[in-house]
């Protein structure tokens, strides 16, 4: 396991806008201990874990809040079995409200002069134990979100020590964009971090902790090294009101892996709920989604499969084939796998 440097706490400057901006601009991240409402976090965790238990992802006859994983149910993003359960969770109002928690947006308001805009596409990460092959690789978020002006909030839904697999960041890396290559794990793209091997910052996170970082700061998940615990966390994006937003960030997460619309999300909500389509009250330019990094991951995987029958690449291509065999990407995956007699 790599050695980690302890994250620098910013609690002492939490109300000082200038110092917060200076530290974010300089180091590319801000870390706060215990600043979020623990009851809100644990209530959301309970909502999520109850759904996981109903779907058999947690061991029978265990308290759902404990998050004791049923190892036989291991799956991840890019698999239909994962998406089916994930989109059940995605209908929770409490999940979407987490991007609007007052204590969170108050801190973020110190970083944005003209108001905070929470990106509609909220994201939950669910990581099984004994599944480290699928750990989110270290990367920069610009490849996924088409922005240089966003900040990400990473929030553990419960205590999350190094063994459970929190988040690691590499400070001072937000000033340049790095080349990315194919990898398994959420996003399917990674940065080579060998030169940063002694510069990864993390901590034993506790409920109520908050990590903010610039969209270009290199970051990645740490592997879940436990034998039986699920790791649950939120990572959501924020920007100043009025900035451009890529069109796919106005859709539910994983909408492109299985049909799922906002009407599906809101099906059981109150008709006049003020969170529904809240972004339509704001004015901003909507950017067409760029596919170049999606194509980069796919083409890298195809090249690795053809050149060396790379197991990670073959697994990825099999998932692309299963998700949408009629799409252009699905057809490329099928052609490659057929050529290799797989």
What attributes does this structure have?
single chain; 342 residues; alpha+beta; Jelly Rolls; 2 domains; six-stranded antiparallel beta sheet; two-stranded parallel ribbon; 30% helix; globular
In short, what is this structure?
This protein has 10 helices and 14 strands. With 342 residues, it is α+β, with helices and mostly antiparallel strands.
Describe it:
With 342 residues, the chain is α+β, with helices and mostly antiparallel strands. The protein folds into two domains: 285 residues, Jelly Rolls, CATH 2.60.120.620; 52 residues, no CATH class. The protein is built from ten helices and 14 strands. The strands form five sheets. Strands 2, 3, 4, 5, 10 and 12 form a six-stranded antiparallel beta sheet that branches. Helix 8 packs across helix 9 and helix 8 runs parallel beside helix 10. The radius of gyration is 20 Å and the shape is globular. The two termini are 34 Å apart. The model has no long low-confidence stretch (mean pLDDT 97).
What's the helix and strand layout?
Layout (H helix, E strand, L loop, with lengths): L4 E2 L10 H11 L1 E4 L5 H17 L25 H10 L3 H5 L4 H8 L6 E3 L5 E4 L14 H4 L5 E6 L10 E4 L10 E2 L6 E2 L10 E2 L7 E5 L3 E4 L9 E10 L4 E2 L15 H4 L20 E2 L4 H17 L2 H13 L4 H12 L3
Helix pairs in contact: 8-9, 8-10, 9-10
């Amino acid at each position: 396991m790599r050695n980690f440097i302890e994250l620098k706490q910013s609690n002492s400057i939490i109300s000082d806008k200038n110092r917060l901006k200076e530290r974010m601009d300089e180091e590319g991240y801000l870390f706060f201990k215990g600043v979020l409402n623990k009851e809100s976090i644990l209530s959301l965790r309970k909502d999520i874990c109850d759904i996981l238990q109903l779907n058999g992802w947690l061991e029978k006859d265990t308290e759902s809040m404990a998050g004791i994983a049923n190892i036989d149910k291991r799956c991840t993003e890019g698999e239909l079995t994962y998406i089916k359960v994930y989109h059940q969770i995605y209908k929770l109002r409490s999940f979407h409200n987490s991007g609007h928690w007052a204590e969170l947006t108050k801190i973020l308001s110190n970083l944005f002069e003209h108001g905070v805009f929470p990106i509609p596409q909220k994201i939950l990460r669910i990581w099984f134990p004994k599944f480290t092959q699928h750990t989110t690789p270290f990367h920069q978020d610009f490849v996924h979100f088409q922005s240089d002006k966003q900040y990400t909030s990473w929030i553990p839904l419960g205590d999350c020590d190094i063994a459970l697999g929190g988040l690691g960041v590499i400070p001072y890396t937000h000033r340049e964009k790095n080349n990315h290559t194919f990898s398994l794990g959420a996003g399917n793209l990674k940065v080579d971090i060998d030169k940063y091997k002694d510069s990864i910052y993390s901590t034993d996170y506790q409920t109520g902790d908050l990590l903010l970082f610039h969209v270009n700061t290199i970051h990645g998940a740490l592997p879940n090294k436990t034998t039986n615990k699920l790791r649950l966390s939120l990572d959501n994006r924020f920007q100043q009101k009025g900035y451009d937003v890529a069109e796919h960030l106005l859709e539910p997460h994983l909408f492109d892996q299985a049909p799922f619309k906002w009407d599906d999300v809101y099906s059981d909500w109150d008709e006049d709920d003020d969170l529904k389509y809240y972004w339509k009250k704001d004015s901003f330019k909507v950017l067409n989604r760029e596919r170049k990094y999606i194509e980069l991951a796919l083409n890298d995987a195809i090249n690795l499969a053809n050149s060396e029958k790379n197991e990670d690449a073959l697994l990825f291509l099999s998932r692309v084939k299963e998700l949408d065999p009629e799409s252009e990407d699905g057809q490329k995956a099928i052609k490659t796998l057929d050529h290799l007699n797989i």
